[in-house]
Amino acid sequence: MTFRSGFACFVGRPNAGKSTLTNALVGQKVAITSDRPQTTRHTIRGILHREDAQLVIVDTPGLHRPRTLLGERLNALVKDTLTEVDVIGFCLPADQKVGPGDRFIAEQLEQLARDGRGTPVVAVVTKADLVPKGRLAEHLLAVSRLGEWADIVPVSAVGGYQVDTLADVLVGHLPEGPALYADGELTDEPEIVMVAELVREAALEGVHDELPHSLAVVVDEIVPRERTGDGPPLLDVRVNLFVERDSQKAIIIGKGGARLRDVGSQARRGIEALLGARVYLDLHVKVAKDWQRDPKQLGRLGF
Ligand SMILES: Nc1nc2c(ncn2[C@@H]2O[C@H](COP(=O)(O)OP(=O)(O)OP(=O)(O)O)[C@@H](O)[C@H]2O)c(=O)[nH]1
Ligand SMILES: [Mg+2]
């Protein structure tokens, strides 16, 4: 049996379902997801282990016309990733017409092809569960007219529809080669980053307008508490949430701190599952004025 291994990356406009699909392929949550745009802010590798192949899926931030320095940096990151993979999965949500955002990405992919990289692009029509069959068919037709695709695959990450088929198609574009990651390794995401991401995911729920973009989360420290008795270990996890304005700080904290407490208890559940320990989660909200446009602050926040 030939064994294949290599890299696929998902690109697509914000909210196209890239991270949800990455998680579905890996079979475990490695990337946070939300219905707010620009949820993903760095590349995340998820690893799919099969008998015949190892597929490393690189989930990327949504590609869009940048409006801030952060946006520019995220786009640059995506473009670098595109040149480093064996196959590209261009995600287009079925419940939205092919629009300028998709054409912008199609142009970037064409540019890449013109630059002489023969990287195959698979058009992945995501969220197929959200539309009736007839509309899905129309959408597939519109997608086929948008560019030159090696394949077009409709999927639903939520319904599990065709996720295996997509894996087969992506694996088909990988070169022969040995496994790149150890058995059972599902992501290269450091735990400390996952912790920050779980807090950001919880904090994104229910916030609107500019706030999702203005929110950055950094873990300050994770300290084990002195153990007394046989109970599971207890960790003190201190996390800073940065927003850009005082008004946003008030929203995140909520009346009498109620919102922040909800965010904390939701995030804590995920963090405890991740770390396999009881967690005392300490959240602090701080203002880092206009950090999205400030090179120095962007650096400090890890961009
Ligand atoms: N019904 C349905 N919803 C989906 C599916 N895939 C993703 N979603 C939803 O679409 C929203 C966006 O999903 P994400 O996976 O975060 O999208 P993304 O492309 O990673 O977004 P960015 O990281 O912001 O670029 C979330 O609310 C998901 O629950 C799907 O197959 N079916
Ligand atoms: Mg994402």
TrEMBL record:
Keyword RNA-binding found:
yes
Please give one Pfam family short name: KH_2
Tell me the SUPFAM superfamilies matching this sequence.
P-loop containing nucleoside triphosphate hydrolases, Prokaryotic type KH domain (KH-domain type II)
Q: Region labeled G3 — which residues? A: 59-62
Q: Which PROSITE patterns does the annotation name?
A: G_ERA, KH_TYPE_2
PANTHER family, A to Z: GTPASE ERA, GTPASE ERA, MITOCHONDRIAL
Give the start-end ranges of region G2. Answer: 38-42
Q: Extract the InterPro entries matched here.
A: G_ERA_dom (IPR030388), GTP-bd (IPR006073), GTPase_Era-like (IPR005662), KH_dom-like_a/b (IPR015946), KH_dom_type_2 (IPR004044), KH_sf_prok-type (IPR009019), P-loop_NTPase (IPR027417), Small_GTP-bd (IPR005225)
**Its quaternary structure?**
Monomer.
Domain Era-type G: where?
A: 4-176
Give the gene symbol: era
Keywords from the UniProt entry: Cell membrane, Cytoplasm, GTP-binding, Membrane, Nucleotide-binding, Ribosome biogenesis, RNA-binding, rRNA-binding
Region G4, residue ranges = 126-129
Q: Where does GTP bind?
A: 12-19, 59-63, 126-129
Question: How the protein sits in the membrane?
Answer: Peripheral membrane protein
Start and end residues of each KH type-2 domain: 207-289
Annotated family: Belongs to the TRAFAC class TrmE-Era-EngA-EngB-Septin-like GTPase superfamily. Era GTPase family.
**Localization per record:** Cytoplasm; Cell membrane
Its lineage opens with: Bacteria, Bacillati, Actinomycetota, Actinomycetes, Micrococcales
UniProt name for this protein: GTPase Era
